[in-house]
Amino acid sequence: MEVSIIIVNYNTLALTQSCINSVFEYTLDVSFEIIVIDNNSHDGSQAILALDNRITFIESDLNLGFGKANNLGINVSKGNYVFFLNSDTYLLNDAISKLWKFCEERKNEFIGAVGCLLIGDDGQRCHSYAKLPSAFDILKSYAIAPFASNKAKQILGIDNSKNESELSFEVGYVTGADLFLHKSVLDNCGQFDSDFFMYSEEVELQWRFKSAGYKNVIINGPQIVHLEGASMKVSEKISMNKIIMIQKSLFLLITKTSSLLTYYIFRYLFAVIRIPFLILSNYSFKDKTKYLSLLFS
């Protein structure tokens, strides 16, 4: 068995089935298995996915979040490689064989995570990679994001490499929607950190890869559609609960990748930057109170 494809499902039955079907339709040149972990869905996913004899189905009685659920898949996987694939993706070509062949041909190059240039459902490029952000990078991006979101993306190195026309190019991290790697990398660096529930867990994981000397890489050739990448519009108002979840994970990321002094300075400056946002936003009083609790926790 060469590749273990790990998909986490949470109330996305139709999307997960589409993803699974695309893998079987297009994957021709490499042996694989599909492992689906259900994160305690409430849409009837379990009963239907459990009947699909093409996959290994794992049912969790809790919503473990992204990283922990993927770790369950890692622990039962049989492949030499693992491929973490979001449920809201689907293949347009034999992407998995292309990722596998790239890694097989470069076994001596200390390759960590590999991904591709993802496509939204509108046919346009969507978020695929970024640089590993420092605490200062994150502060700068949040300081200017309300005024210049494109500049904030540039600071964080989001999808702006000058090398995208090349066969492959090194990046800080590959987005967690399509994360391909040899299992030995996880043996050497560890699995997803269970302290994260959702957001930034793939950044922290690939920070460990980089620290161990591995290269994280984007390659051209595989074609994968990521539906969320096209459906998230900048103009849409994000729920306060999602903002809090994202920023809690950012705080955790800083604790994992920086010194304690850097963390405390970051938290102070982050609060200074975000209070004007809170004052000027049109969130409810209840939401603003929740956000203040986060800033000063």
TrEMBL record:
<keyword id="KW-0328">Glycosyltransferase</keyword>
<keyword id="KW-0808">Transferase</keyword>
<feature type="transmembrane region" description="Helical">
    <location>
        <begin position="261"/>
        <end position="280"/>
    </location>
</feature>
<protein>
    <submittedName>
        <fullName>Glycosyltransferase family 2 protein</fullName>
    </submittedName>
</protein>
<dbReference type="GO" id="GO:0016757">
    <property type="term" value="F:glycosyltransferase activity"/>
</dbReference>
<keyword id="KW-1133">Transmembrane helix</keyword>
<feature type="domain" description="Glycosyltransferase 2-like">
    <location>
        <begin position="4"/>
        <end position="108"/>
    </location>
</feature>
<comment type="similarity">
    <text>Belongs to the glycosyltransferase 2 family.</text>
</comment>
<dbReference type="InterPro" id="IPR001173">
    <property type="entry name" value="Glyco_trans_2-like"/>
</dbReference>
<dbReference type="InterPro" id="IPR029044">
    <property type="entry name" value="Nucleotide-diphossugar_trans"/>
</dbReference>
<keyword id="KW-0472">Membrane</keyword>
<keyword id="KW-0812">Transmembrane</keyword>
<dbReference type="Pfam" id="PF00535">
    <property type="entry name" value="Glycos_transf_2"/>
</dbReference>
